[in-house]
Amino acid sequence: MKYTLEQAYAYCHKAAKKADSNFYLGFMFLPKPKRDAFFACYAFFRYVDDIADEHSEGARSQVSPSGAHPAGMLPPKARLPDTVGFADLLPRQQIACISPSAKSHSPRSVHEYKGEADYVAKLIQRWETDLDRAYEGEADHPIMIALAHAVKSYNIPKAPFKGLILGCKMDQTIRRYEAFDDLLKYCELVASTISAVSISIIGCKDKKAFEYGRYLGLAFQLTNIIRDIAVDAKKGRIYLPLDELKRFEYGESDLLNGVVDKRYVNLMRFQVKRAREYYLKAKHLMEYVDTDCKLATSLAGAVYLKLLDTIEKKQFDVYKNKFKLSEYDKSVLVLKNMLKSEYSV
3-state SS of 115-149? Predict the structure, then answer.
């Protein structure tokens, strides 16, 4: 099936809505052309991230490069599900749907790939290849058709997309980070790269805007790491730096087994404090954002800060609570931000 540009953007919109991301609320207050571009980029980011995240449980657990040895529990080998991320949005669950380049890859059932050690690597590599094709104006998959148009319309550099792909590849082998500097390198790839793409769309051209956008992207990623501690623990992953766990005398086994005590609370207070510091570092971003994008950008920051506030109020217990903003919370945030005389993140 050959998608028109309109159909391709509609597909990306549907994919973003299905993901139910914290970003979706802000997207809806962008002018349509910019909203479409965001949906295209976000669909690509989520698709690649889902491939890496949903199918990495069987990977070998390792410490980040600065670590001296493998650490933590080895997660059990995962059974690869029949679909990958957004693939269930397509008419047929086939590899042709997962790999954008339908012309260069014959359709194969996902079942045929089960058990292959390089399953995820092949999928990610195919998307990386088709990213290159999209930048040359060639695309078959709806996400890539929309993306090719978006990157050309807003002069979006390819490097951030490549950075995200590299970060997702890291997720396949690295399960621990010895120090925050190590974690920061990973966050730069998977979070700051997304903010770099966003900056191009919302009209920021000053170099300072990219730095503030970087801080905001890191703040979002650190918030996600805090929120997803329990989810990641089930996959054998620990993103919190190991030296910080040691500082608070909280063991890896404690985190993996969901031990919530004074040590845990103190550790989490430290994590939340650092995340808030990055939000503060990003506060001047709004000075560089196009007027028609200020509300959307402000909402994105407000949603994540509200999430952080909620986690803190519940004593950081991410094991017993699933932290997600209600429709009421979102409505209140929209109203508050619309009534602001000056936007902020």
Answer: CCCCHHHHHHHHHHHHHHHHHCCCCCCHHHHHHHH
Cα–Cα dist 160/55, whole Å:
23
Cα dist from 92 to 95, 98, 108, 141, 266, whole Å:
9, 10, 11, 13, 48
Per-residue pLDDT reduced to its tens digit, 50-74: 887 665 544 444 444 443 333 332 2
Q: Are 94 and 273 in contact (CB under 8 A)?
A: no
Rounded distance between C-alpha atoms, residue 96 and residue 296, angstroms:
34
Q: Residues for the chain: how many in total?
A: 345
Q: How far is CA 323 from the centre of its chain?
A: 16
CA distances from 86 to 37, 160, 295 (A): 18, 21, 28
| 344 and 301 Cβ atoms separated by less than 8 Å | yes
Which domains can be identified in the chain, with CATH numbers? 5-338 (1.10.600.10)
Average pLDDT over residues 285-300: 92
Place of tokens 């807003």: 154
User: In three state form, how does the secondary structure of 23-81 look?
Assistant: CHHHHCCCCHHHHHHHHHHHHHHHHHHHHHHHCCCCCCCEECCCCCCCCCCCCCCCCCC
Distance of CA 49 to the CA centre of its chain: 7
Report how far residue 170's alpha carbon sits from residue 172's, in angstroms, rounded to the nearest whole number.
5
Token pair of 277 as six digits: 């510091």
For residue 302, how many other CB atoms are within 10 A of its CB?
Answer: 24
Over residues 115-157, the pLDDT tens digits come to: 444 777 888 889 999 999 999 999 999 999 999 999 999 999 9
Span 219-233, average pLDDT = 96
Q: Supply 76's token pair.
A: 């059990």
